[in-house]
């Protein structure tokens, strides 16, 4: 994939988003200029992935400001609009953190708001690059089978899910760039297929060898010894290391623990939410049951079946071998995360 791929890009008057619901068959960009459309785009996963929705929310503050000027909003209406962007999805803390950071500059006007949003975007890409190097260094030091590594990942954590480059997929890209990657097992990631549609698409662009496998295949692939390490992203990490990520992640972590291979989480320090004590306190988004009862818009389950569709699950911190951040790798399998090293 060209490194300059940007899931989120400010055009000067609006926010250009690659419509991730259409990939890999169509690459289309939508330009968002109002708050309702932005909130809808975040909720429909036109833009998705914790850091990418953080960046979209950051620029969303500028969209709200411009819409307010066009439509002559009062202060209260602007605050309410910014609040709606902030709450568009509940699990990823990045959205709230980024919106709050940029909204703090609202009194200084549009230029300041745009400057802050651009800083959010720039810092994310820089952080991802650093994370990629730290994660690859750690894996090559700790896992040394004497041949290139076989890595399993879940969901999509690449350039599409961030402001650029990627978190867990950034580590994978770095291993590939160093010639130390044999193959990636990309879990398809039911029900919305971020793995088979988006991760596989990014891996194809990068020329990275990979298999797409059903989520249900992951544990067996790991227990058969076909994987050297798993690396995933995160939407929110509690103070005790409990990690919310795409539903299906905890099964991967359990299999890694049983197989005795590393299970790494790669995420910027802004994903760590020290105010959230444990995973029990993380709000897990429940999505429309139609997403699990249908396939490609066609009903597959019996008409009377109900669907249970949590978008995320929580992996207990004790199952996380290491947390790869832009500051380095923290090996924390038990207890509190070291807050002073994270904020
Ligand atoms: O529902 P999604 O596609 O937004 O879920 C995305 C994930 O769970 C990612 O793993 C996480 O946001 C990290 S993206 C770098």
Automatic annotation (TrEMBL):
GO terms for molecular function: S-methyl-5-thioribose-1-phosphate isomerase activity. Pathway: Amino-acid biosynthesis; L-methionine biosynthesis via salvage pathway; L-methionine from S-methyl-5-thio-alpha-D-ribose 1-phosphate: step 1/6. The keyword Nucleotidyltransferase does not apply. Transmembrane segments: none annotated. Gene3D superfamilies: translation initiation factor eif-2b, domain 1, Translation initiation factor eif-2b, domain 2. Catalyzes the interconversion of methylthioribose-1-phosphate (MTR-1-P) into methylthioribulose-1-phosphate (MTRu-1-P). This is Methylthioribose-1-phosphate isomerase. It comes from Streptomyces sviceus (strain ATCC 29083 / DSM 924 / JCM 4929 / NBRC 13980 / NCIMB 11184 / NRRL 5439 / UC 5370). The lineage of its organism: Bacteria, Bacillati, Actinomycetota, Actinomycetes, Kitasatosporales.
